[in-house]
Amino acid sequence: MTFATLRERWPSFAGGFVVLFLGMAMVSMSVLALASAGARVPDRLAGTPVFVSVPMIERGEGSFAPDRPWSPEAVASLTERLGEIPGVAHVVPDRTFYAQPVIGGRPVVSDRGYAWSVAMLAPYTLTAGVAPRAGEAVLDRSLGLVPGERVSVLTVHGPVTYTVSGTVDGPGVYLSDAEAARLSGGVRAIGLVTEPGADIAAVAVAARAVAGGAHTGDGRSVLETREHERTRWIGLQVLTGMALLSAFVSTLVVGTTFAVGVAQRRREFGLLRAVGATPRQVRRMVYGEALIVGVIATAAGAAAGALLGPVLGDVLIAAGFEPPGFAVRISPLPLAGSFATGVLVTLVGVWSASRRAARVRPLEALREAEVDDRPMPRVRWIAGAACCALGLAAAADAAASDGSDPFVMSGLLAAMGVIAGLALLSPAVVPPVARLVSWPLARGRGATGMLVRENALTAVRRTAATATPVLITVGCAVLITGMVQTTAAGFAAVRATTIRADTVIVPDGTPGLTDAAASAAGAESSLFSAVYQPDGDPLSAIGATSELLERAGDAQVVSGSLEALRSDDQVLVAEWLAEDRGLRPGSALPVSFEDGTSASLTVGGVVREADADVLLSRELLRRHDAAALATEAYVAGVPAPPGPGARVVDVPTYSAEADAEEDRLVWIATVLLVAVSTAYAGVALVNTMVMSAAGRVRDLAVLRLSGATGRQVLGTVAAESVLVVLLGTGLGLVVALPALLGMRGAFATAMAADVPLVVPWPLILGVIGACLVLAACAAVLAARPAVRRG
Length: 790
Prior knowledge:
By secondary structure, the protein is an alpha+beta fold.
């Protein structure tokens, strides 16, 4: 095929080009971001060439459990032995803690504190003043404070006033080593500051012999915080979903584009067969056309993705899907992979269309009418029926759920199966549904209504090709957004009914509550931390009182009593842990704490639904974890003002806001996927309208010759597109809403509470409105040239 031929047939290929361009731009951006999203050396540790760290456990997918810290005795011994290594100038245990300056009555964004000796590990320098002593602090110069000023700093115990002794050109609050040791938890890494000219490799080998593990160069990235690791993992899920969705939808739309093109060119293929072209030659011609379009579109999309990659990186950081400092790097391998993906998507998408073109018989050259009277392929019937059967079976399973099995997955499979089945069977499903929906038009007196109805019923493939992307988009949007919002509302409803308190104190611009804020006016709070088994495996731990657990409704006692938390040497263990370790009341549980010390605790009871593996007294946990913050505090009565970094809310407000950050990330990811799918649906709609217009020139000319004005003809075309979009919308709602109701019922059973059905109708109406506007405008604009010629 020559480029001149491609130019002549450009309207038939424009849709596929645009979809591949957008899809491969999205794929290349996502792949570049994924390739750039690996762990990185923390900025505050980048100035030190060698680090030793505690043994790191093997964590499963999505697990961000901390590693067991060294004991204080081990830190002292390692510091002494590492300091004897030739070439080592300083040995610095990495001590961090919570410290958040309050300026202008509000906590600032930075909330990390460090021992002053840790400043040697970073490429930061003292820009003014001197090192801190007792009662003094060195702060980031960007805060605008100068040496000699007084500043209030929130610590785990509450606000403390320090004198600014100096400033540095980096983030954080630096206190004296003695004060930092009192506020920090256990030590998990030790930095080795080397002398000028020291052999780094030799120092690392010697350190490895002493501590068992040493990290240099990019290997220091293992020191990344668990918070940043979790953020990167969330971003990985979002980027992978975007890339897979883009590739999948691109394949479907490219296949639809060439399928419609083949249907419009059956007479041309029949002529080729009549003059001696073989089926293989016809198939090769279709593949050649697709490859020319695919290669150009993919190359352009990959280039656009490379240009827009840094913009995507900034968006991911702002949304909370990547940690600060993340940047998308341009590298050839991801771009080459994106290009290969685009070519593969093109070949897969055009496979069915090429086979259909090769089956055109020479007698098709005699066809004049373009009536869609060809039956669906047998494979499509089988695949569509199988998807519907799978979906109905999953729906039955979800409906019969008592809330103990994975009903959400069953509901998703039910809806997705039926949506996919209806999409495959659309040429057979659309006519009867269209006949039912357009029945009021047939009862009207005007000719426009009759024409709209008959055109929708006669042009089955065009109607199905237009309704299918709307069906998929609206169905998936209602299902996914409704599931996310209903789940969030369900958890909030359950939380509101189980909490027995008048008000709740929650963080305000801080990562948690200090002890002073949490105890305001007699409020009770718990602390979340971790303890470690003898083999190093972590167990989540909550420090609380029996009264607080009863008030929060957080734990169900299986054996023993919550009163065990009144003793510092007793713990309550989760039911799974008791079964796995053979524990019962009176058993011994040896553990290590966050400060590295060890103890043998007595099991005082077994609980379920406690939100942690181990429950112990709040005083015991605070004694061994000086850095833990409370997430909320329950108040009976009216509390006193809690001070900076905290605010008082009622129970319904707290219930709705408790998982606000998690809900925000999930909702952003959900809206992003809906936006991407809506964009592809819009391209598919425009593509179908433009390609269909080329085959309707004679029909529109006949309408003009019959006396219809240009405005009437264009109004008829727009009405047809609106009818078909409403048809796809109705099918999407019919599929999604019952599945969503089934999931809501099973969720309500599982939570033993009244869970409201929440569907974000403004967003759904926006999706439908976008489809309506795009379809109507594309249909009118594509038909205008033919109407003018008529």
